[in-house]
Amino acid sequence: MQIAQVIVDIPTRQTNNPYSYLIPDYLVDQVVPGMRVEVPFGNRKITGFVVAIVNNSDFAGKLKPISSLIDFSPVINEELLQLSSWMADETYSFKISCLQTMLPGGMRIKNKKRLIANDDSVVNQHPEIFDGNHEIDYNRQKLTDKSIAQIIRLQKEGKIQVEYNLTHHAKPIMMKAYQGQLDQGQADSQLAVVRKNAKGQLKLLSILSAHPHETFLRNQLITQGVTESAIKTGEKNGWLKQTLKRHIRNPFLRSVAHTNPLTLQPDQKQAVTRINQAISGKQDQVFLLEGVTGSGKTEVYLQSIAHALETGRTALMLVPEITLTPQIVGRIRSRFGNQVAMLHSALSNGERYDEWQRINSGQAQVVVGVRSAVFAPLRNIGLIIIDEEHDSSYKQTDNPRYQTRDVAKWRAAYNHCPVVLGSATPSLESRARAMKGVYKLLTLPHRINRHALPHVSIIDMKTEMAKHRSILSNQLSNAIQDRLDKHEQIILLLNRRGYSAFLMCRDCGYVPKCPNCDISLTMHKNTHSLNCHYCGHKEPIPTVCPKCHSKRIRFFGVGSEQLEEQVKQLFPTARVLRMDVDTTRKKGSHEAIIDKFGAHKADILLGTQMIAKGLDFPEVTLVGVLNADSALQFPDFRSSERTFQLLTQVSGRSGRADKQGEVVIQTFNPDHYAIQLAQTQDYERFYATEMRVRHDGKYPPYYFTVKLTGNSPSENQTASEMFDILTYLKSHLSAQAIILGPTPKAVTRINNRYYYQIIIKYRKEPNLKPALDEILMQSQKKQRHGLQIAIDNEPLDFM
DNA sequence: AGCACGCCGACT
DNA sequence: GTCGGCGTGCTC
């Protein structure tokens, strides 16, 4: 007797223990781990993942049988199944949510699906399933048990496709196609006899020669220069046979010319050699590739990926959320062509599903994608790359709160392959590990072609503001006018976080800070006070600056729309493009803006952080940062690191080609070390300085941290429950553990729910894990009373 | 989510 | 006595 162990999806009471279900006779030997099933649960039906097939169950009661199969082949492979268990444990979440995050968005919908025959022969051989149609809605009732077994077999053999009911534009597209009927020799001999002025036919034959017996979509041929009449002739001569081919939606908007590996500089060569040795030696070594902007990290990635492929393995490359622009993808694709699959948030469900399918079936061996692509169903991975490893988008902010770097390391250990963490400004965590020898440090200290770093000047906005009230300093305005005259391009960066509520004196730059924590206080509009997130300190909002007694102490923050208006007013002839969340909401608009700017159809590109990352415009010779310190004022231990990284990154945007670049940084804190050291691009000194701050403040990487957040509709309830948790923690942890809070969050009320948090900082607490597991279990019961608890292991911030 | 079970107050 | 309120626990 076969019994399936199923992780069920129960909305409330979640559990990591599987439930046992009988496998009905017709599904014996067909159900395998990794498939989703529908099962009876109480008096209704729910879905779940089969995680194991066993012979007997230790459940004492009477087992129920599986109701139906959702997948005919596993959607989660053995590796990812194991990963989900580790992840649930690591992130204090439930297996079911881990498994669901591993699937591409569109597939999480369960009910309906369609079966699509890949060719006519399947339709003809199985009238009992297809009834003469190419595509049918899957309907359990209409099919016999035997047919279902057939369907599973047909999918295994790749003769049919299963399409889940995704959004409307996710339908598979069948297009007119032609199958080549010639082998290479035949095509070549035809090529020799065809008239030399029959361009279309020549092109067609050369394609057939290069790809014998392949099937091509009609417009694939047309776009490559094969004429209509040439196709007709080809059909007539028996070179081609008309057929239908499933069109795989192509998320690459344009085709890319093939490029060859570039010659490496000595330090690049050294890095590639070390990485390739680890690939060949099947070592799960982590490398930290530290290279200044323009030092050629990408080429190191590309040649290492090539090596992984040469050894018959696959490669995974992760990039930050916003960076996944055509520029980067284009470079990967120009080297590896159709072996590349791309997974990012701008894809439609249908596109994402197609890419996922290409990876799962082994058609794509290189995956480029954002955070969630770390779960790409690649097999036999030979290399994992995380570009801009310090980027905050690698940590998921809601359940399961995983850190992509850690998942990558797990997969590397499983696949016996190296991980490369690349950055110009590594996170302190990673760099500290490299210093301890846990990671191997590889450095690329030189810019390719020895381009000089841009000249960076810092403008003190305190004195500027005293002169005039413009967002732009005189020096920046003059520099902009100069570039406009020279017909060169300009990028203006506005920190979106400047919107946030903090106080600052416009005359002396004073920002109220907590007396206990050395961190800026946050405006709490609802309580009319300044609060500290770390210790709960509160004080009234001052009406005059406590330092210089000026009355001009107020909120700080400018939006990108206002900036656009001002810039247009000051420079009426300039062509201005704005890029922020508002202008890039529509699919493809991000690319459209980049293309337009790249083609020099605009003079000024202004926007938020998203313009800082990974973009490479050779015509840009001036970068202006309008409010460099707005991130700095955030009441968070990582704000200096973020500021330094951002400024270093944007500075790299200026003057990458043969023109000298200039960067103007406007700030109210010209003396802050993050800004000073960004001016000289001195990562080493920043690292040393910041490490001391982290050490003194008992922050990561010196301490481990956990953030517990509770919320409920009642402020009293939230607070009292959080105090209960505090009591519980105190009784289970050692005296060395630092427990901060509970304190109300900066935005205490969201959607009429009140948020409180507790921060735990520790070095060694063997009892912490079981204590948090217990809190997680208890939180299920408390949910009934409206209280939600979130546990964030190693949070990115304390806010 | 839904249903059973069981422990309390109000009532034919 | 018992009907039914709802808080609690369970569903393979």
Automatic annotation (TrEMBL):
* Residue intervals of the Helicase ATP-binding domain: 278-444
* Catalyses which reaction(s): Couples ATP hydrolysis with the unwinding of duplex DNA by translocating in the 3'-5' direction; ATP + H2O = ADP + phosphate + H(+)
Question: What Gene Ontology terms describe what this protein does at the molecular function level?
Answer: 3'-5' DNA helicase activity; ATP binding; ATP hydrolysis activity; DNA binding; zinc ion binding
Q: A Pfam family this protein belongs to?
A: DEAD
Output the InterPro entries linked to this UniProt entry. Answer: DEAD/DEAH_box_helicase_dom, Helicase_ATP-bd, Helicase_C-like, P-loop_NTPase, PriA, PriA_3primeBD, PriA_3primeBD_sf, PriA_C
Binding site residues for Zn(2+) 2? 514, 517, 532, 535
| Gene Ontology CC annotations of this record | primosome complex
Keywords of the record: ATP-binding, DNA replication, DNA-binding, Helicase, Hydrolase, Isomerase, Metal-binding, Nucleotide-binding, Primosome, Zinc
**Annotated GO biological process:** DNA recombination; DNA replication initiation; DNA replication, synthesis of primer; double-strand break repair
| Enzyme class label | isomerase
EC no. given is: 5.6.2.4
SMART domains noted in UniProt: DEXDc (SM00487), HELICc (SM00490)
What's the record's note on cofactor binding? Binds 2 zinc ions per subunit.
Domain Helicase C-terminal, by residue range, is 540-694
**Cofactor requirement:** Zn(2+)
Residues that hold Zn(2+) 1 according to the record: 505, 508, 545, 548
Keyword Lyase among record annotations: no
Function according to Swiss-Prot or TrEMBL: Initiates the restart of stalled replication forks, which reloads the replicative helicase on sites other than the origin of replication. Recognizes and binds to abandoned replication forks and remodels them to uncover a helicase loading site. Promotes assembly of the primosome at these replication forks.
Q: Which PANTHER family match?
A: PRIMOSOMAL PROTEIN N
Q: Which HAMAP family match?
A: PriA
**Similarity-based family:** Belongs to the helicase family. PriA subfamily.
Q: Kindly state the subunit structure of this protein.
A: Component of the replication restart primosome.
Name of the molecule in the record: Replication restart protein PriA
